[in-house]
């Protein structure tokens, strides 16, 4: 999308701007710095992977506070700073419907994000859109996650990027774009 849009990145360490999605004030400060934008795209969110029956509340809290509420807060703050015709695009993952061993917390969080997006779409102001991209494991991440995803060949990041492009540059809202 870079040739067609001015892309401004933000993250805790590496982005053009600094933001920590687990910190609401940090999200507010980011938008005060940025002003109005045409589209908000999130590709962040940490979740704990491990055996379900050994998972502690603190470990569940990682996904709930970071990937889920981080993106919910980004959406709610960001919606106040969108230009007319603007959009929000979040990230979830196919573990919402295709679970794996050790991935229960990710399944929980990804399903919640997808449900949130479907619901938010019907309450967003007219012309403001929201979608979520839900990929299976990326081919580029196979060295790290491949052992969890036996039977999956993974998808290339460039295919996942097309789903983000479709969300930002298309006209649909309330959609979950599965990339498998
Ligand atoms: N990789 C896969 O195969 C795959 C498949 C399906 C879904 N997903 C989902 O896609 C998302 C990204 O996955 P990834 O593998 O690309 O992760 P990653 O390599 O760890 O990248 C995460 C990015 O988000 C930023 N970030 C992390 N926590 C943040 C926070 N609290 N606030 C602001 N920025 C934050 C990081 O930058 P800083 O360190 O600078 O903050 C980094 O640029 C995750 O939600 C993951 O569940 C990944």
How big a fraction of the residues is strand? 15-25%
In whole angstroms, how far apart are the ends?
21 Å
Structural class, by secondary structure, is alpha/beta
In spatial order, strands of the major sheet run 3-4-5-6
Largest sheet: 4 strands, parallel
* Total DSSP helices: 5
* Helix percent band: 25-40%
How would the global form be characterised?
globular
User: How many strand elements?
Assistant: 6
Fold and architecture overview:
By secondary structure, the protein is of the alpha/beta class. It is 39% helix and 17% strand. It contains 5 helices and 6 strands; from the N terminus they run ββαβαβαβααβ. The chain has helices at residues 24-34, 57-79, 104-123, 142-145, 157-169, and strands at 10-11, 17-18, 37-41, 82-91, 129-135, 176-179. The strands form 2 sheets. Strands 3-4-5-6 form a 4-stranded parallel β-sheet, sandwiched between helices. It has a two-stranded parallel sheet with strand order 1-2. Helix 1 packs parallel to helix 2 and helix 2 (57-79) packs parallel to helix 3. The longest helix has 23 residues, at 57-79. The two termini are 21 Å apart. NADP nicotinamide-adenine-dinucleotide phosphate binds at residues 11-15, 19-22, 43-47, 66-67, 70, 91, 93, 135, 137-138, 141, 145.
Throw out a few tags for this protein.
180 residues; alpha/beta; four-stranded parallel beta sheet; two-stranded parallel ribbon; 5 helices; 6 strands; 17% strand; globular; binds NADP nicotinamide-adenine-dinucleotide phosphate
Describe the SSE topology.
Elements: E1 10-11, E2 17-18, H1 24-34, E3 37-41, H2 57-79, E4 82-91, H3 104-123, E5 129-135, H4 142-145, H5 157-169, E6 176-179
Parallel strand pairs: 1-2, 3-4, 4-5, 5-6
NADP nicotinamide-adenine-dinucleotide phosphate (NAP) is lined by residues 11-15, 19-22, 43-47, 66-67, 70, 91, 93, 135, 137-138, 141, 145.
């Amino acid at each position: 999308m870079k040739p067609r849009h001015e892309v401004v990145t933000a993250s805790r360490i590496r982005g053009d701007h600094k933001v920590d999605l687990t910190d609401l004030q940090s999200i507010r400060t980011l938008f005060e710095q940025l002003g109005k934008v045409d589209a908000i795209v999130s590709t962040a969110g940490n979740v704990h992977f491990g055996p379900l029956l050994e998972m502690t509340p603190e470990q569940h809290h990682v996904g709930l506070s970071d990937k889920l509420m981080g993106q919910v807060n980004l959406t709610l703050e960001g919606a106040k700073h969108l230009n007319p015709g603007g959009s929000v695009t979040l990230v979830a993952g196919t573990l919402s419907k295709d679970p794996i061993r050790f991935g229960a917390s990710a399944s929980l969080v990804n399903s919640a994000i997808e449900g949130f997006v479907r619901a938010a779409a019907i309450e967003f102001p007219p012309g403001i859109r929201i979608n979520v991209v839900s990929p299976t494991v990326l081919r580029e991440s196979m060295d790290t996650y491949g052992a969890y995803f036996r039977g999956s060949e993974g998808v290339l990041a460039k295919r996942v990027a097309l789903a983000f492009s479709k969300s930002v540059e298309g006209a649909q809202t309330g959609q979950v774009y599965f990339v498998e």
